[in-house]
Design brief:
Layout: H1 7-10, E1 18-20, H2 31-42, H3 46-55, H4 58-68, H5 80-91, E2 96-103, H6 104-114, E3 119-123, H7 132-142, E4 148-151, E5 166-169, H8 173-182, E6 187-189, H9 196-202, H10 216-220, H11 226-253, H12 255-259, H13 268-271, H14 276-297, H15 299-317, H16 325-344, H17 351-378, H18 394-417, H19 421-424, H20 434-450, H21 458-464, H22 466-483
Parallel strand pairs: 1-2, 1-4, 2-3, 4-5, 5-6
Helix pairs in contact: 2-4, 3-4, 11-14, 11-15, 11-16, 14-15, 15-16, 16-17, 17-18, 17-20, 18-20, 20-22, 21-22
Length: 486
C-alpha cells in the first residue's frame, strides 16, 4: 500500500493519537463552500445574510450557514486511503480524532456517521478552529509532538510543526515542498487521479455541441461569407465558456442532490475528483473570458449573451425547482442561442424560426425530464428533491413532449408554405421533405426515452446516435438542395 512508510508508527508501544483534518483530507471537498452554495440554492436571498455574518467574522458566517443548511454526510466523497490510515491506527490500538475548521454541526455528523473517531474538534460560534488556533488546541490537548497529523493545505503548515509525524494528502506542490523542508520524514500521499479528464468533464465540453445552434441563422439566412462564419464561430466559443461557468455553479448548488443520483454522483465535484475551491475560482474566470469574447463580436451579441447569463442564473437558483417553468426556461436558453447567432452575424431572426425553436426545444426539455424521472422510477428512488416533479408525472410529461414536438413540425410546415420562402430558396418545395424527417426523429427520441435507451440530454444523445446523425445530414442535404438553383 502507499502508506507502508507509516509502519514504524505502529511499532511504537505508546503511539500518540492520530489527528485527521476534514476538508480536502478525509473528505475530497470543502464543506463550507458546499453548504454556502446549498444555502444559496435553497434561498438566494441568504447571500445578504451571509455577507452580514461574514462582517462579524468567519465563526459567525459558518454558524449562519450551518443553522440553515443540512448536508447528507453519508454521501460525501470520503478518501479511501485516509480511511485506511484511520483503520490501521485503530487496529494498532491508537486513538483517532477528527479536527476541522468546519462548523461543529457537520464535524459531529461526519464523526457519528463513520463511527471511527475517539473524539472531535471543530469551529463554533466564537472560534474558527483553523491554522494556529487548531495547532494550539491540539497542543493543549495532547502536548507538543504528542500527536500525528494528517492534513492537505497551506493552512496545515501551522499545525504540522507541532506534530510528531506529518502526513499530507493531495497537497499542492508548494505545500509539499514547504512540508518536506520543515519535516524531511513527512509522508506525502496522492490519492486523486490526474485531473485533466475530470476538468473536461466538469466544464461539460461535450455539452458545447448545443452551442452549435448559433450556426442556425448562418444557414437559414444563407450568410456564408468569411466574416459571418468567423463571427458565428466566435459566438460559439463565447457561449461555450459562459455555459461552462454556469455548469460549475450549477454543480456547486446541486452537489448534495447529485451525490444521491445514480449517474450524476460521478460528476467531478460530487465525486471529489476536482477540488471544489479551484472549480469555484474557475467559474468567474470563464465568465469574464466569455463576456470579453462577446464584446469583441459586437455589442448586440454581448447583450444577448448577458440575457442568456441572467436567465441561466435564474434557472440555477430558482426556476429549475418550479414545475414546467423549468422546461420553458430550458427551451428559452436553447432559443437564445439561435438569437445570439443571428445577433453575431447581424441578421434579423425569422418569427418562424423563433416559433419553431420554442416548440422543438420545449419538446427536448420535456424528454430530458422524462428520462430523469424514468431512472428514479426504475430504481425505486424517491422523487427528486431539486426538481418539482414526481415519478407519477411520467405519462403527462411524455404527452406534453409529443405535443410540443409535433407542434414544432406544424410550425415548420407553415413556414414552408409562406410565400416569402420562394424568394429565399431556389427550390422551396423540397423543404417539405424535412417534415417527415422531423416527425421521425422526434418520435424516435420519445420511443427511445420510453424504452430507457436514452441516458443523456437529447441533443447530446443525437450527436452520438447514428440514426440521429443521418437524419440531421439528410435535413442538411435537403436544405442545400432547396438553395441551389438547378
Amino acid at each position: 500500500m502507499k502508506f507502508d512508510a507509516l509502519k514504524d508508527i505502529s511499532a511504537v508501544v505508546q503511539a500518540p493519537p492520530l489527528v485527521v483534518d476534514l476538508d480536502g483530507t478525509l473528505v475530497k471537498s470543502d464543506l463550507l463552500i458546499e453548504s454556502a452554495f446549498a444555502a444559496l440554492g435553497n434561498n438566494p436571498a441568504s447571500l445578504f445574510g451571509m455577507l452580514g455574518a461574514y462582517l462579524r467574522g468567519k465563526p459567525a458566517l459558518k454558524s449562519y450557514i450551518a443553522e440553515r443548511t443540512d448536508i447528507d454526510v453519508a454521501h460525501l466523497p470520503y478518501d479511501a486511503e485516509v480511511l485506511a490510515l484511520i483503520q490501521q491506527a485503530r487496529n494498532d490500538g491508537r486513538e483517532v480524532y477528527l479536527a476541522s475548521a468546519t462548523h461543529k454541526k457537520y464535524v459531529e455528523a461526519v464523526a457519528n456517521h463513520l463511527g471511527v473517531f475517539t473524539g472531535w474538534f471543530a469551529s463554533d460560534e466564537t472560534i474558527n478552529l483553523s491554522g494556529s488556533k487548531k495547532a494550539a488546541r491540539l497542543v493543549a490537548e495532547f502536548g507538543e509532538k504528542g500527536f500525528d497529523y494528517i492534513g492537505n493545505d497551506a493552512i496545515d503548515l501551522k499545525v504540522w510543526p507541532q506534530a510528531r509525524e506529518c502526513i499530507a494528502v493531495n497537497a499542492p506542490g508548494a505545500v509539499r515542498s514547504k512540508l518536506k523542508k520543515m519535516s524531511p520524514n513527512a509522508v506525502v500521499l496522492k490519492t486523486l487521479p490526474k485531473q485533466g479528464k475530470a476538468w473536461i468533464k466538469l466544464l461539460r465540453v461535450h455539452q458545447w455541441a448545443k452551442n452549435g445552434l448559433v450556426m442556425v441563422p448562418v444557414l437559414t439566412s444563407q450568410s456564408f461569407s468569411v466574416t459571418s462564419i468567423t463571427q458565428a464561430v466566435a459566438a460559439f466559443f463565447a457561449f461555450s465558456l459562459a455555459a461552462s461557468s454556469i455548469y460549475i455553479i450549477n454543480d456547486l448548488v446541486d452537489i448534495d442532490a447529485d451525490r444521491q443520483h445514480p449517474s450524476k454522483k460521478r460528476r467531478p465535484l460530487a465525486a471529489g475528483t476536482v477540488p471544489i475551491l479551484p472549480a469555484m475560482i474557475a467559474a468567474p474566470i470563464l465568465l469574464l473570458a466569455s463576456l470579453i469574447g462577446a464584446f469583441l463580436v459586437n455589442p448586440l451579441f454581448l447583450a444577448v449573451l448577458t440575457g442568456y447569463l441572467v436567465l441561466t442564473t435564474l434557472y440555477t437558483f430558482s426556476l429549475k425547482r418550479k414545475l414546467l417553468v423549468d422546461v420553458v426556461a430550458l427551451a428559452g436558453l436553447y432559443t437564445i442561442r439561435v438569437v445570439g447567432g443571428a445577433a453575431a452575424i447581424s441578421v434579423v431572426v425569422s418569427e418562424w424560426l423563433l416559433a419553431f425553436s420554442v416548440f422543438v426545444f420545449t419538446a427536448l426539455a420535456l424528454i430530458k425530464r422524462y428520462t430523469e424521472l424514468t431512472v428514479r422510477f426504475d430504481q425505486d428512488l424517491p422523487d427528486p428533491t431539486n426538481r418539482n416533479y414526481r415519478k407519477a408525472d411520467l405519462p403527462i410529461v411524455a404527452t406534453l413532449a409529443a405535443a410540443a414536438g409535433f407542434n414544432a413540425v406544424t410550425v415548420f410546415a407553415l413556414y414552408v408554405s409562406d410565400d416569402k420562402i420562394s424568394q429565399l430558396y431556389a427550390n422551396p418545395k423540397l423543404l417539405w421533405l424535412i417534415c417527415p424527417l422531423l416527425l421521425y426523429w422526434l418520435g424516435r427520441c420519445l420511443m427511445l426515452a420510453h424504452r430507457r435507451d436514452m441516458n443523456d440530454d437529447p441533443i447530446v444523445f443525437a450527436l452520438k446516435d447514428r440514426n440521429s446523425l443521418l437524419t440531421v445530414a439528410a435535413c442538411g442535404v435537403v436544405m442545400l438542395a432547396a438553395m441551389i438553383r438547378l
